[in-house]
Each structure stands twice: as structure tokens, then as C-alpha cells.
Design a protein that fits this description.
The structure is a single chain. By secondary structure, this protein is α+β, with helices and mostly antiparallel strands. Helices cover 15% and strands 42% of the residues. The protein is built from 5 helices and 19 strands. The strands form 2 sheets. A 12-stranded mixed β-sheet has the order 7-8-9-10-11-1-2-3-4-5-6-12.
């Protein structure tokens, strides 16, 4: 399952945060609230791309706490985000517009994932399609608390029912950069949290040397992930979307250990993401399939099963029943 988690994070294509306005009839106050929320999201996305900054990032999740040094700036290869792990084995992750690279010194290896990550990683606000957000979430805006020594404004996405988690975001009042985000269950318990514990904006930034900590990286093994962007099949374009989840991206991955490519479909309701991986298996003889295992780790549901001759794995930032409803209605990949 580890490979699926990695693919979910580093699918090889670019995705942008679509924040087109919504023309649904509403009260004047509601329109103002939506306009303000849209502006906050746009400003945060711009700040995460444009500003030079350095800080310490903390991710609290079901498996514990992960922390890293994060720096955003310029390199010889263009604008870049550099993430250096502070816990566990030494790791450096490089996020460029053209690719994602992971430096693994304990393995003397550089893993390359072509294209930008489809996932809007922190501190990008987790909004993929604002026009769909208000179909499924109530918006609330208020003055936030101090985070990393900076005053914030708070934006809450509260779902209309229990098929989704709540998402709360805090934005720096001065720059607009998102400083913290939480995912909460219906009782208000925090399932997952991303936050800066300290943050500095670099007024005179130095160019970032991407492999600076690894003097011998030139001799390391370079492994390119076999990920290929695919056009969206017509059957998926026509998919109505269970519980409001619509297709966002399609990719195929050819693993050396498998005779058949892994097909990945990625869905969103505007905020939450669900990845579904299909692997064709002739041994299943086209049988209807079943759900074999389900698991919920923090905010992430995982379902492993089979469907009409395919093994499938679904991973998503949703409750288990929502993931089940989604995969139950999906068409099958076209080989």
C-alpha cells in the first residue's frame, strides 16, 4: 500500500486551484461572504507561489507528528519549494513546476516524479474548485489567533452533512499566506493539522542550491517514476459524481512488478481529494468484486477491494462511507 500513498501525493501532472465565482442566487450577506472567502483563497494561493519565505512546518496526523524546514525561493531551475525533514531518516523534497524530486541519502537515491504534484500541498490552500465548494460546505469567516507570531484571519468550511470533514484555515493578515489548516470530524475533534511553528519572509533571499546538503549526490541512483498523464476517458467525463465528487485527473503507472499498468483516477468535491487505483487481473475472471478491507487513519480513509476484474484501492480525505459510495458508482478504466 506504500506505493499507493506515494502515488497519491506525487501524481505526475499539474493542477491549479480553480476559483471561478458562483452565480447561485443568495442573500447579499451570503454573496459578500463568498466573495471575501474567494479573495482570501486567491490571495493565499498567490502568496504561496510568489513570496520568498523560510520556516518550520509541523504536520500532526494519525501516525504522530512530522516536522520539517520549508523554504520557498529561486533556484537555477526556477521557483522552488524545498522541504527538509527534521524527523526520521534525512530527506529533502524539491517541488518545481516541472517535477518533484526526493533526495534519499540513506538509499543513495534521487526519485523523480515528472510534472508538478496534483496535490495542493501546504501552505497552498486546499481548494481545487471554489465553484463546487459552496454546494457542499457552509463558509464562515472570523478573526483568527496568533500563529507563528503573526495575526490571522480564519476561514471555516463546514459541511452540510456528515459525508465530509470540516476544514479550518488561518491566513496571515499581512501577506495572506496560509499559516495553518485543520481537518475536523463532526464532533469537532482534530483529525489532522498542518501549521507553521515559525516563519520568516526573506527580504534579501539567496538562490537555493538544490543538492547542497548532499555533496556526493552526483553518484546516486536516479529513479524516475513511471507515471504518465492520460486524457480523461469519455465514461469518466460523463460521470455524474457520487456525493458531489467529480473527476480531477487521470494517470497510468507502469510498475516493473506488474504486467498491467495501474490506473489512477483523482476526484474532488472542491476541497477533499479521493484517489482510486485500478489494477486489471485476469485471475478475477470479471467477477463482480467485493470490499476486502477498510481503514481510517486520521482524516484519510482507505478501501481495498475488487470490482469486475480489477483490484482497486481508494484513498481519500473523507469518511469511510463516502469513499464506499464513490467507488460503488464508478465506471471501469478503458484498456
Amino acid at each position: 500500500m506504500r506505493a499507493f500513498v506515494v502515488l497519491g501525493l506525487f501524481i505526475g501532472l499539474a493542477a491549479q486551484s480553480h476559483v471561478a465565482g458562483q452565480s447561485t442566487p443568495s442573500s447579499g450577506a451570503s454573496d459578500q461572504l463568498h466573495a471575501r472567502a474567494k479573495t482570501m483563497i486567491q490571495r493565499a494561493a498567490d502568496s504561496a507561489t510568489r513570496l520568498d519565505f523560510a520556516g518550520t512546518y509541523v504536520h500532526q496526523h494519525a501516525k504522530g507528528i512530522y516536522s520539517a524546514k520549508v523554504r520557498r525561493g529561486n533556484s537555477a531551475e526556477g521557483r522552488v519549494t524545498v522541504i527538509d525533514a527534521l524527523d526520521g531518516p534525512a530527506r529533502r523534497t524539491i517541488r518545481l513546476n516541472s517535477q518533484v524530486r526526493a533526495y534519499l541519502p540513506d538509499q543513495k537515491q534521487v526519485r523523480v516524479y515528472p510534472g508538478a504534484s496534483v496535490r495542493l500541498d501546504f501552505p497552498h490552500p486546499p481548494v481545487y474548485d471554489f465553484s463546487r465548494v459552496t454546494e457542499h460546505y457552509q463558509l464562515r469567516v472570523s478573526t483568527g489567533k496568533r500563529i507563528a507570531g503573526r495575526m490571522t484571519d480564519r476561514l471555516e468550511f463546514v459541511p452540510h452533512n456528515q459525508s465530509r470533514w470540516s476544514v479550518h484555515c488561518w491566513f496571515d493578515q499581512e501577506t495572506g499566506l496560509m499559516l495553518k489548516t485543520q481537518t475536523l470530524d463532526p464532533s469537532g475533534a482534530v483529525l489532522e493539522e498542518h501549521s507553521f511553528s515559525d516563519l520568516n519572509f526573506e527580504s534579501s533571499p539567496q538562490a537555493i542550491v538544490l543538492d547542497a546538503p548532499f555533496k556526493d549526490a552526483g553518484g546516486w541512483q536516479r529513479v524516475t517514476a513511471p507515471i504518465q498523464r492520460e486524457p480523461m476517458p469519455q465514461s469518466l467525463k460523463a460521470y455524474a459524481g457520487a456525493l458531489g465528487f467529480h473527476p480531477l485527473a487521470v494517470a497510468k503507472v507502469k510498475e516493473p512488478s506488474s504486467s498491467f499498468p495501474h490506473t489512477q483516477w483523482l476526484f474532488t468535491d472542491g476541497i477533499a481529494l479521493v484517489s482510486v487505483f485500478f489494477i486489471q487481473d485476469p485471475k478475477l475472471n470479471g467477477q463482480a468484486g467485493s470490499t476486502e478491507t477498510t481503514d481510517l487513519k486520521g482524516a484519510t480513509a482507505m478501501i481495498v477491494g475488487s470490482k469486475s476484474g480489477y483490484h482497486l484501492t481508494a484513498l481519500g480525505e473523507v469518511p469511510i462511507d463516502t469513499a464506499k459510495s464513490l467507488i460503488a458508482t464508478l465506471p471501469l478504466p478503458q484498456q
